[in-house]
Design goal:
Number of helices: 15
Helix content: 25-40%
């Protein structure tokens, strides 16, 4: 049986005698939400014109109740400025009502070949193209995939061998290539399902995000495709001389990083009684001297029992604090890098051997008692943790706060709370490991209550001008586990001040935490765009520097019609019009 995932947008496949000299995306906002059109030339006289919108927006306009001619007229009016006076054409006039508006079915077949009995003979049936797999029309690869399937199968037969051998080779080889395309198509599909997420960007960033949405086209691949356009974009983004985005400064609260290269926290298992040794000084010092903007200390525990292994670092006594201050002072005096502390409690994953003696394997002797959100072991080989009590939660919260104060006294520039990888706070967040029946178990809000309490208590003593971040496991990738929607809820909730009725006396309302991400600054410019298709996009555009460039420093790129949904025809990725117009709001279908 195929796995079919019906996507969130409704779309209708239309045509027009208006011709487009490049793959064009057009965006229009109505009082209920955004519509987008995917347009490209079909032959010398006609173009394909696909109109797409989230189902909620589709229903809000009553398109689900309209007959086909009325719905087409709606689309003609909405996208009139792109159609040049031409009408939209349907090739499905036999359908009634809104039946020609469908949701894209992402199809994945586990097997592409099977056999049927025909007059006593076992005859193979081979699936190709959309019958075996689909890729969203926004990357334009459906027909290409089908043709490549046929070519591969024909080539395989030319090589000889039994039919079964040929079919096995075809499926094994093509399934890998199709998986690559379907992953890119998924990214592109999700981008178009969440257009409002990007429309607050300035037009240059919107274009960059659109071009890199599928992650098949990277920043440097854009340079190969159009050096001039990308150079102009980099110049605009940097507010002066063109600089690769990863080398631009990044400002978060009162901290400015010299570039966007960070050294992730990694366990070195080199501490003695939680005290970092010279190995960690050399390791982090070398990375800081190597040009990174910031280096992260490995996960460090606020308690002896919260360490992963006996060789992991801690920050719960003066000796440890003095050793960490020595490392911080070296980074600050010998390099231009910043340094971050990561605090966390291992929870059910603790009391294990160092990495090279066995991954997540319990100690052969000298094990210490473990705590968890519930009595759920990390793995079959690990100890059964005790479900942490409310009194123990209070104590641990205060220990996190004490380690936060020590982090500040050491001179660290950034603080991160570890809520990932199955550690204690992560065990609270995941429904797979949180089986509590009190106020700290149940829905996502209840499961996050204690981690947020710890976070807010730490934030209350961490200076407002210093950034603080949270590391989470955003998706459990297991039945019944957390999904990206739960991660989004946690992101939003962690930016809210603590409730006044919080059980934590230190959780005073504070400014929202900062995060270092690759996300763009969401500036409320009233612009969107249409541009030439490039099938390899990146999900987030880089964040701009606080100082905005002048109009004269912007690339000669995408602009045009004086309406919110701007179109900018492009050739080889470059705009063919001058960036001279301003955007105004388009509130709905218009004949203007």
């Amino acid at each position: 049986m195929p796995d079919v995932d019906l996507r969130e947008c409704r779309f209708v496949w239309l045509g027009t005698h208006q011709t487009f000299d490049a793959f064009t995306f057009a965006f229009e906002q109505t009082e209920h939400g955004w519509f987008q059109a995917h347009a490209y030339q079909f032959d010398d006289k006609t173009s394909t014109f696909i109109v797409e919108t989230p189902e909620a927006v589709w229903k809000a306009h009553g398109l689900d109740q309209m007959e086909q001619p009325e719905a087409i007229a709606f689309c003609e009016k909405l996208f009139s400025k792109y159609l040049g006076g031409h009408s939209l054409i349907s090739n499905a006039t036999h359908l009634r009502g809104s039946a020609n508006w469908i949701r894209f079915p992402r199809v994945v077949c586990e097997r592409w070949t099977h056999r049927i009995d025909v007059e006593g003979r076992s005859v193979p049936v081979v699936l190709m193209g959309d019958a075996a797999h689909t890729a969203h029309f926004s990357i334009g690869s459906g027909t290409k995939l089908a043709l490549e399937d046929a070519i591969d199968l024909a080539n395989e037969f030319e090589q000889g061998g039994t039919v079964d051998h040929v079919l096995e080779g075809y499926e094994a080889r093509r399934s890998v290539e199709v998986l690559k395309i379907q992953n890119a198509a998924r990214n592109s599909t999700e981008w178009f399902e969440n257009v409002p997420r990007y429309t607050g960007m300035e037009i240059e960033q919107f274009a960059y995000s659109l071009l890199t949405r599928s992650q098949r086209i990277s920043h440097e691949n854009l340079r190969v495709r159009d050096t001039q356009w990308l150079g102009g974009y980099e110049q605009w983004l940097a507010g002066g001389k063109a600089v690769a985005p990863m080398l631009m400064p990044y400002k978060v609260r009162g901290l400015t990083l010299k570039n966007r290269i960070l050294v992730s926290p990694m366990a070195t298992y080199s501490a003695v009684d939680g005290v970092p040794q010279d190995f960690l000084l050399v390791h982090l010092g070398a990375r800081a001297l190597g040009g990174a903007a910031m280096v992260f200390v490995e996960m460090t525990s606020p308690t002896p029992e919260g360490r992963i292994t006996p060789a992991c670092t801690g920050l719960y006594n003066d000796t440890q604090q003095a050793a960490f201050k020595r490392i911080v002072d070296f980074v600050h005096t010998q390099s231009s890098a910043k340094i971050a502390m990561q605090l966390g409690h291992s929870g059910p994953k603790g009391s294990t051997r160092v990495g090279w003696e066995g991954t997540d394997e319990p100690l052969e002797d000298g094990n210490w008692p473990l705590l968890g959100a519930s009595a759920v072991p990390y793995g079959e080989q690990n100890q059964l943790p005790a479900a942490i009590t409310r009194a123990e939660m209070d104590t641990l919260r205060d220990q996190f706060v004490d380690s936060t104060r020590r982090t500040l006294e050491c001179g660290f520039d950034w603080l991160e709370l570890h809520c990932a990888h199955g550690y204690l706070l992560s065990a609270f967040i995941s429904p797979l490991t949180n089986q509590r029946t009190d106020e700290y178990g149940g829905d996502i809000e209840a499961r996050c209550r204690y981690p947020l309490e710890v976070f807010r208590a730490m934030r209350a003593v961490w200076p407002a001008d210093k950034p603080m971040s949270v590391r989470i496991s955003a998706h459990d990738w297991a039945p019944g586990g957390n999904t990206d929607a739960d991660a989004w809820w946690l992101r939003v909730s962690s930016r809210k001040p603590a409730p006044t009725s919080s059980t934590c006396p230190r959780a005073r309302p504070r400014a929202p935490p900062s995060r270092c991400t690759a996300a763009c600054t969401r500036r409320r410019s009233r612009t969107a765009s249409a541009t030439r298709s490039a099938s390899r996009p990146s999900r987030w555009a880089p964040s701009p520097t606080p100082t905005r460039p002048t109009a004269s420093s912007r690339p000669a790129a995408p602009t045009c019609a004086p309406l919110r949904a701007r179109t900018w025809p492009t050739r080889r990725g470059r705009c063919t019009k001058r960036p001279s117009c301003k955007a105004a709001t388009s509130t709905g279908p218009s004949s203007t």
